[in-house]
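Tutorial, part two.
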Amino acid sequence: MRTALITALVVASASAAGCSSGGAEPAGNAPAELKPRVVQVLPHDPTAFTQGLELVDGVLYEGTGLVGRSSVRAADPRTGAVRTAVDLPEPLFGEGITVVDDHLWQLTWQDGVAVQRDRSTLAERRRVSYDGEGWGLCHDRAGSRLVMSDGSDRLVFRDPNTFDVTGEVRVSAAGEPVERLNELECTANGVYANVWQTDTVVRIDPSSGRVTARIDLAGLLTPDERARTDVLNGIAAVPGTDEFLVTGKLWPKLFRVSFVPR
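Running the prediction step on this input gives:
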């Protein structure tokens, strides 16, 4: 996004994206404070400027950014091998992605365009327009809606087929706005969001906008690796488990983690 920028992986069923939260909420409105427990370290393309990440039916879908380098790809999560990849033509700057049944949505940053793609081939089906910026996107199956971020403290709800706006919510923690919401992952326990330019992921109750957990992901890379990469960005629930895959822009590794109390 902004240029400032195994042992076999067993995936249970397809469209289920619900995962447990990993850690109970404390009393009151203070978010639970969590940290990652690394289960496995997997390879990741170090040239991928990661914008969106989602694991469905054993396929890792990833959207990448930067003008002239944006793409959407389907990869083997165990090896990182890319099975299918389609470039996004200039001047479009790719952002978040999500899978909905037989298609996939891909956002663009400041172009005001969402691209609907065939899930199996990643071929473009059509484009729809939207106002403002596009950052993160996920499919809230329980609510039959898409959830979209734009870099502010706002999450916008959209129809998963038409992309029309159906509502929105403002996100806050202990009464304070939480801005720079970036890549998203929808689960049965809330929406997980990377906070841009930080090593923090927050878990959000989409019905109220309240942050229910804050996860500190600092330290996954070595200091040398961190010096040669960009920000943390990319979170995908592993269906049927309480684990997630996390990575970042230009990161050489993908981490399978669970979230535990700090």
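The chain has one domain: 32-256. In part three we will examine how such features are distributed along the chain.
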